[in-house]
């Protein structure tokens, strides 16, 4: 856990700082606006640590108590993490005590940075910890702002949420120029997801898209095996 | 609120377990002392590129594109602004291949367009 690792991790994590503070502040504002206590939004930020599930949780928590459907919904919305674990399976070998933390902190953005940028395990753990702290602090800031200030302040930040899209486009492009042998996989992801989006609609397309990607990659694997 | 505090704590706990299950499952499924199955090795090399493609589509999922958008719902000119933002991001990355420049440039371009012009 050297100083050099920290510095490199900090530079890499700066775009995530922008994205997480914006989204985290939005999440905190929303939690405050819906009348939840601070400990609920902060505990979710720390234990669930998945933006999409947490936003959903804000509406689930105001409904009726149903642990089973809560589990299913959270699992399905978070199912893309399964792919991150599979992608990192070999890379996390030898990470020792850092391994459970690297897995626990593996959000979309953290996975993407650590997968494309690589680096030592301590650098990757610093990226993970920094991203986590941005998310948590953003959520708390948003909550405090939501209980003390009006709506006007968010207007100056209009459009900043696009940083998330830009970040994933940049990550996609970075991976695309670095790994020419994966170009067909990249197109598979784009095409299958687009087709499923048109067919299943924006609320339900992620699970069929993941299944479709797995099936196509399996067929390609079988063909390359022969 | 309909739920009691205890029920809310249980709900949060269940969600946390579900999400952590998605993160840890691949590592629990294949014990790390064994050799990694060959298809998992293959996925380790090729899956991420497909996932990044899928995540780009995921970010764009709520845009109503021109040919699908209603006139009133056409706040961002049928997704033109988002597509321009994506295009600027791609070009910036092909030009300098510097993540920080690409991301800050693409975002600032979008924010400027959205706040000043649209």
Please give a structural write-up.
The complex is a heterodimer of chains A (226) and B (118). Chain A is mainly α and 226 residues long. Chain A has helices spanning 3-33, 38-47, 51-60, 67-77, 80-88, 98-104, 108-117, 121-148, 152-155, 163-178, 183-200, 206-225. The radius of gyration of chain A is 19 Å and the shape is globular. Chain B has helices spanning 5-29, 38-59, 80-96, 99-117. In chain B, 37% of the residues are buried. Chains A and B meet through helix 1, helix 2, helix 3, helix 4 and helix 5 of A and helix 1, helix 2, helix 3 and helix 4 of B.
Describe the sheet with the most strands of chain B.
none
N to C succession of SSEs of chain A: HHHHHHHHHHHH
Query: What is the rounded Rg of chain B?
Result: 21 Å
Which blocks of ≥5 consecutive residues of chain B have pLDDT under 50?
none
Q: Gap between N and C termini of chain B, in Å?
A: 39 Å
Uncertain runs of chain A are none
Query: For the terminal residues of chain A, how far apart are their CA atoms?
Result: 44 Å
Quote the beta fraction of chain B.
under 5%
Rounded to an integer in angstroms, the radius of gyration calculated over CA atoms of chain A is: 19 Å
């Amino acid at each position: 856990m050297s100083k050099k690792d920290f510095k490199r991790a900090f530079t890499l994590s700066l775009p995530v700082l922008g994205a997480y503070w914006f989204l985290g502040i939005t999440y905190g504002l929303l939690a405050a606006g819906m009348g939840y206590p601070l400990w609920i939004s902060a505990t979710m930020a720390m234990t669930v640590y998945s933006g999409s599930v947490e936003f959903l949780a804000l509406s689930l928590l105001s409904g009726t108590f149903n642990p089973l459907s809560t589990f299913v919904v959270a699992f399905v919305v978070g199912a893309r993490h399964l792919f991150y674990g599979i992608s990192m399976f070999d890379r996390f070998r030898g990470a020792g005590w850092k391994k459970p933390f690297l897995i626990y902190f593996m959000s979309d953005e953290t996975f993407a940075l650590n997968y494309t940028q690589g680096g030592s395990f301590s650098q990757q753990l610093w990226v993970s910890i920094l991203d986590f702290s941005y998310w948590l602090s953003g959520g708390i800031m948003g909550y405090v702002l939501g209980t003390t200030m009006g709506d006007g302040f968010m207007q100056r930040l209009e459009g900043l949420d696009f940083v998330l899209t830009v970040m994933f486009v940049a990550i996609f492009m970075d991976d695309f120029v670095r790994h020419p042998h994966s170009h067909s996989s990249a197109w598979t992801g784009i095409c299958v997801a687009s087709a499923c989006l048109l067919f299943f609609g924006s609320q339900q397309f992620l699970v069929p898209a993941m299944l479709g990607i797995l099936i196509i990659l399996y067929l390609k694997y079988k063909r390359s095996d022969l | 609120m309909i739920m009691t505090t205890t029920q809310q704590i249980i709900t949060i706990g269940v969600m946390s377990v579900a999400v952590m299950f998605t993160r840890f499952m691949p590592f629990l499924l294949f014990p790390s002392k064994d050799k990694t199955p060959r298809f998992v090795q293959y996925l380790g090399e090729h899956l991420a590129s497909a996932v990044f493609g899928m995540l780009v589509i995921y970010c764009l999922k709520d845009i109503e594109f021109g040919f699908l958008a209603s006139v009133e719902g056409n706040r961002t000119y049928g997704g033109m602004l988002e597509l321009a933002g994506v295009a600027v991001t791609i070009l910036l990355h092909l030009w300098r291949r510097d993540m920080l420049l690409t991301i800050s440039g693409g975002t600032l371009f979008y924010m400027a367009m959205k706040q000043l012009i649209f």
